[in-house]
TrEMBL record:
UniProt-listed SUPFAM superfamilies: NagB/RpiA/CoA transferase-like
Official protein name in the record: Glucosamine/galactosamine-6-phosphate isomerase domain-containing protein
InterPro entries referenced in this protein's UniProt entry, alphabetically: 6PGL (IPR039104), Glc/Gal-6P_isomerase (IPR006148), NagB/RpiA_transferase-like (IPR037171)
Lineage, broadest ranks: unclassified sequences, metagenomes, ecological metagenomes
GO biological process: carbohydrate metabolic process
Pfam families attached to this UniProt entry: Glucosamine_iso
Glucosamine/galactosamine-6-phosphate isomerase domain location: 32-221
Length: 233
């Protein structure tokens, strides 16, 4: 397993500001760069601060780590969330290119969307960095427990169908994450204490969480940016 750096912050706000500072250090316009960015709830502030901090987006691609196959206006849409949190706060005359997993084309069939997405994203690699969240069950992107057979998919993205959800998901494969040179996990809230305890305390035991399986195979630098509540154990 690679070396892992843990940084603790007093709250989500300071954690988010630090994550944007790391992004800024790696961001080098107008050079062509692609950053893998998160969906879910934690990154709301990440996108807000990112929009206010960066003032030159020339050459920059933002690639979502996963998406729910729902309309953009649906509250569950990650790209809808990004556009609201990001574009409403943008502090730049030019905009980054956000790769829309749903809506990039007029395709509606999930398999056609996947083929189109996988062909297109090949042109955006390699990644400069990945900024990801972690769920309380240890998932990142849409790499969930009990779906491990899909993680190391030969394609860049693949479909996930969970019985508990009325929609399909599209997730980046673990292969893409493990090949990324700089990986940042944004972790906040008391509900993440259990998963962080397992990550930090069971590194030499059998990997039991999706994120642990990814950590073991990752080739890049890994940093966990956590608020105080997530590490209060």
């Amino acid at each position: 397993m690679p070396n892992i750096e843990i940084r603790e912050f007093s709250d989500l706000e300071s954690l988010t500001i630090a994550s944007v500072e790391y992004f800024s250090k790696l961001h080098n316009p107008p050079k062509k760069q692609t950053f893998l960015v998160p969906g879910g709830q934690t990154p709301f502030l990440f996108y807000k601060h990112l929009a206010l901090t960066i003032n030159n987006w020339v050459g920059t691609n933002l690639l979502l780590s996963d998406e729910r196959l729902v309309p953009e206006k649906n509250i569950m849409s990650n790209v809808g969330m990004v556009k609201k949190q990001f574009f409403d706060n943008i502090n730049s005359e030019n905009l980054p290119h956000i790769v829309e997993i749903v809506g990039r084309s007029n395709l509606t069939d999930s398999e056609q969307i996947l083929v189109s997405l996988n062909d297109y994203t090949k042109t955006l690699l390699p990644l400069t960095a990945a900024f990801l969240g972690i769920g309380s069950d240890g998932h990142t992107a849409s790499l969930f427990p009990r779906f491990e057979d899909l993680f190391y998919n030969p394609n860049l993205f693949f479909k996930v169908d969970r019985p508990s959800e009325p929609f399909s998901r599209i997730s980046v494969s673990a292969n893409v994450i493990t090949e990324t040179p700089n990986i940042f996990f944004l972790v906040s809230g008391s509900e993440k204490q259990s998963v962080m305890r397992k990550i930090l305390k069971t590194q030499n035991k059998k990997d039991i969480l999706p994120v642990q399986k990814i950590l073991r195979k990752s080739k890049g630098k890994i940093m966990f940016l956590c608020d105080r509540e997530a590490l209060a154990f």
